Amino acid sequence: IGRVDNQVKIRGFRIEPGEIETVLAQLPAVRSCAVVPLKDPNLGTQLVAYVVAPAAEFSAAHLREFLHGRLPEFMVPAHFVRLDALPMTGNGKLDRRALPAPARVRPDDLPQPFVAAANDLEQRVAAVLGGILGIDRVGQLDNFFELGGNSLAVTRALARLREAGLPAIAPAAFFANPTARALASTLGGEVSTLVSRRVSRVPPSPGQGAIPT
Questions:
Q1: pTM over 0.85
Q2: Which residues neighbour 57 within 8 Å (Cβ) at sequence distance 6 or greater?
Q3: Of 73, 96, 118, 181, which residue is most buried, by most CB within 10 angstroms?
Q4: Close Cβ partners of 161 (under 8 Å, ≥ 6 residues apart)
């Protein structure tokens, strides 16, 4: 019964956080850890891993890569938070209320450096992605899914892009182009196509008729 009570449902999958904690504990730098669910209005329920490890040996990117090689994608936490110690209650149990919320900032250990949006369209796309993810800034090369995005967030992002006056694209196009630069390029192509179609539908004025031979 206790195992059922501890299960978490993530994107339709039932997950036992203890299984993730067991895998994390295999890393020598991890002294202890706890994986808990976090509800987000845009991203749905996400997993947050709280890890007790020396600051010099803590790397969210390394932890994420380690888990990706051993667990399904839906079991990999969206956020990793380093702690000096896990907060405990008086009876020795994890004090979930004392766990700090993960910082809503762009991670410093992403594989690519921050590159600011190069034009207005990229800026608009980056702003939408950042708003969905709750992140202060999104670079043009940042992968939406490496920042914590998921399929639910893709649906919301597509709706926000439409609200921003941009053309609709299929979810598959988003998944294939998950950076601000790639999305802006895809959306820019759609804009050009729409403009071309509108121009082709405009009837010629009397002075633009065919020149008689």
A1: no
A2: 29
A3: 181
A4: 125, 128, 169, 187
